[in-house]
Amino acid sequence: AESWGVHDPKxxxxxxxxxxxxxxxxxxxxxxxxxxxxxxxxxxxxxxAIKSDSEKSxxxxxxxxxxxxxxxxxxxxxxxxxxxxxxxxxxxxxxxxMPFCIWGDHSTLTYVLSxxxxxxAAGKSKSMDExxxxxxxxxxxxxxxx
Length: 146
Fold this sequence. Notes:
By secondary structure, the chain is α+β, with helices and mostly antiparallel strands. Helices cover 26% and strands 45% of the residues. It has three helices and six strands; from the N terminus they run ββαββββαα. The chain has helices at 39-56, 117-121, 128-142, and strands at residues 6-18, 25-36, 64-72, 81-91, 94-104, 108-116. Strand 3 (64-72) and strand 4 (81-91) form a beta hairpin. The longest helix is centred in the N-terminal third of the chain and has 18 residues, at 39-56. The two termini are 20 Å apart.
């Protein structure tokens, strides 16, 4: 993250899961906090790094980015940059796409990925707008005053 423009980055990540089997729902949050001069630059750099890593992987279960990142400004999201993109994975021969979002502001760079196993098994996923709204909610819930 330092090479992308995050000064003095500190890693933070969390994963949450509920249910089991097809009823499993998961939320993954991972990123860094520090000082960021250009939030859009670091968001773009994180997408580029994820894309580069996914292209190097030989496993289809690791996921490949589909399309390009799109900028979103959901209700309640202020003073930052958020972009979302789809990631496609293959499990047991079945292809699944799901959106994930990255937000950056002057102190935080984080991605949020949420999925529901039953929805994915049915060949569906959240919309980009739903993913962006959830990301804004997570951001608002985790931010603390310095």
